[in-house]
Design a protein that fits this description.
The protein is globular and about 40 Å long. The longest helix is centred in the middle third of the chain and has 26 residues. The model has no long low-confidence stretch (mean pLDDT 87). The protein is α/β, with parallel strands linked by helices and 132 residues long. The chain has a two-stranded parallel ribbon. A two-stranded parallel sheet has the order 3-4. Strand 3, helix 5 and strand 4 form a beta-alpha-beta unit. The N and C termini lie far apart (36 Å). The protein is 49% helix and 17% strand. This is UDP-glycosyltransferase 83A1. Belongs to the UDP-glycosyltransferase family.
Length: 132
């Protein structure tokens, strides 16, 4: 959210997309000192699970997200690009949501993978196995 806010404060039009399940939590956690929703368009997409489903079952949640959200994101981008004078020119996604980057690529939109966790965590899966 901090990256989105900083981009918006520098004049970029930002649409922040998350799942319906966490949307209200994000809205409630926004800082009260500034009206974030005036700077950023907040949008939620379905993750494919029912509201009563257990989202702590990572495998089930991941499968559902991969089945549903790429199509939902594609439709959202088409809606925005079809109705706005300004088109989406870049998609920044959490690196864990690689499917979002694939959607951007298929639609000809520039894409950036963002890693919000500590840099050391990113280094783990890509580290060189050779000794220093």
């Amino acid at each position: 959210m901090e990256l989105a806010l900083n981009l918006a404060k520098h004049g970029f039009k930002v649409t922040f997309v998350n799942t319906e399940f966490i949307h209200e939590r994000v809205i409630n956690a926004l800082p009260g000192t500034e009206n974030v929703q005036e700077l950023i368009q907040m949008v939620s997409l379905p993750d494919g699970l029912e509201s009563s489903d257990n989202r702590s079952e990572f495998g089930k949640l991941s499968e559902s997200i991969l089945d549903v959200m790429p199509g939902e994101l594609n439709a959202l981008i088409e809606r925005i690009n079809g109705s706005e004078t300004e088109k989406i020119s870049c998609l920044i996604a959490d690196a864990i949501m690689g499917w979002a980057l694939e959607v951007a690529e298929k639609m000809g939109i520039k894409k950036v993978a963002f890693w919000p966790a500590a840099a050391a965590l990113l280094a783990l899966p890509i580290q060189n196995s050779e000794p220093y």
